[in-house]
Design a protein that fits this description.
Blueprint: E1 2-7, E2 10-15, E3 17-24, E4 29-35, H1 40-49, H2 61-66, E5 73-74, E6 81-84, E7 90-94, E8 103-111, E9 114-117, H3 119-122, E10 131-133, E11 139-147, E12 161-165, E13 175-176, E14 186-196, E15 199-207, E16 211-213, H4 222-226, E17 236-240, E18 257-260, E19 263-273, E20 283-287, H5 292-299, E21 308-311, E22 319-321, E23 327-332, H6 339-344, E24 349-352, E25 357-361, H7 362-370
Parallel strand pairs: 13-19, 21-24
Antiparallel strand pairs: 1-2, 2-5, 3-4, 6-15, 7-8, 8-9, 9-12, 10-11, 11-12, 14-15, 14-18, 16-17, 17-20, 18-19, 19-20, 22-23, 23-25
């Protein structure tokens, strides 16, 4: 049993199952296959028992795709996925304060000190304690977090947020494109993985040849439908190409930008779902044009003055007290959801020792401890 996947416009066949047994009846037959994926560890161990050296990338789909590539059937036309050295305005939003190298979300620099991303990516960020990683690998702390007031968690509606940084960058920002693009082709910027010897590296990948779909033509996956209870709206766009690509050759993270093919500096929206850049399964996109009024109102609002203070003498699990009398406990900032409410209420925030430990109001800290 095999499946054909596309890699650099070549058709690469992958064996995914081996026939185990079959039953032949008069009108039909039933065949049972064993999935190869369940046998990979056993195959590696067997090679090792025979004295063979087994590289960690032996069964990696990308490494397999590179083998005999020039002998594979080639698809005519432009590349489906084009490698780009870098896109300056793309930033990485780390998923925790303990890691500055692995990010789960992407944002777009739209001003020298402003990043647009998804609300789902900004929901748990803490001002002055969270940061973004720029394309030059430097980092900037986040000064303010603005989440669209109409956003509801685990949905694709009003899924947009703005982050202001503590200082300006020298990087050229992207342009937010709010106009009609019906006659334009669009592309999705994701990440392409590649092995360099035994090291896995990433570059920017531009997914091309994507069809723009709306409403019933989109055919979202079951997981996407669960976050689209009211269906696709004016704020949404669906991108898809019928070809399935080799995993890792283009991966879209939440917040990956969707751009005009004729000008990748013009961003029209952000990808919310669709890990393979719209190939095989659709990518669901939130468009900027439907949020123009809200975006403009935030960018024109004067910055707030936050009262944030680090108390070096306080350690994990110790008691802390806010100026208004609220008693708290020093806990990991990821374990204190109520700190976000203090930000919204313009109340001060205390950090204990460093910005990975926050003074968490007692009720919230108790709930976390009980869980």
């Amino acid at each position: 049993l095999n499946i054909n996947l596309i890699y650099e416009n070549h058709v690469v066949p992958y064996v995914i199952g081996i026939l185990s047994h079959s039953i032949h009846l008069r009108q039909f037959s039933i065949e049972t296959f064993v999935q190869i994926s369940y046998l990979t560890e056993w195959i590696k161990e067997t090679f090792q028992d025979l004295g063979e050296e087994v590289p960690s990338s032996l069964f990696d789909p990308l490494v397999c795709a590179e083998r005999y590539l020039e002998q594979r059937q080639k698809i005519q036309g432009n590349l489906l996925v084009k490698k780009i050295d870098s896109v300056e305005y793309m930033v990485i939003i780390p998923d925790s304060s303990s890691s500055k190298t692995i990010g789960t979300c992407v944002g777009v620099l739209i001003r020298s000190d402003v990043v647009v991303t998804l609300a789902q990516c900004a929901n748990y960020l803490i001002i002055l304690s969270s940061w973004v990683i720029l394309s030059d690998y430097s980092s900037k702390s986040i000064r303010d977090v603005f989440i669209h007031p109409g956003y509801k968690e685990d949905t694709f509606y009003n899924n947009i947020a703005l982050l202001t940084l503590t200082s300006e960058t020298s990087i050229t920002p992207a342009s937010m494109y709010f106009y009609s693009f019906e006659k334009e082709r669009v592309a999705l910027l994701g990440y392409k993985k590649r092995f360099f010897f035994e090291d896995l590296i990433e570059t920017i990948a531009e997914a091309q040849q994507l069809s723009i779909l709306f409403d019933d033509d989109c055919n979202p996956t079951q997981e996407q439908r669960s976050r689209l209870a009211e269906g696709l709206q004016v704020e949404h766009m669906c991108l898809r190409n019928e070809h399935y690509i080799v995993p890792g050759s283009c991966e879209a993270r939440p917040g990956s930008p969707v751009v005009l093919s004729s000008d990748i500096g013009s961003v029209i929206g952000l990808s919310m779902s669709g890990n393979y850049c719209g190939f095989g399964e659709p990518a669901i996109v939130t468009l900027f044009h439907d949020h123009l009024v809200w975006i403009s109102s935030v960018l024109e609002t004067p910055p707030k003055e936050w009262f944030v203070f680090t108390i070096p003498g306080l350690k994990m699990s110790e008691v802390c007290v806010y100026p208004e009398g609220t008693v708290g406990t020093c806990v990991s900032r990821t374990s204190c959801p109520s700190v976000h409410q203090r930000v919204k209420d313009n109340l001060p925030i205390f950090f204990c020792t460093d910005k990975s430990i926050v003074c968490c109001p007692e009720d919230s800290a108790t709930e976390v401890g009980e869980n």
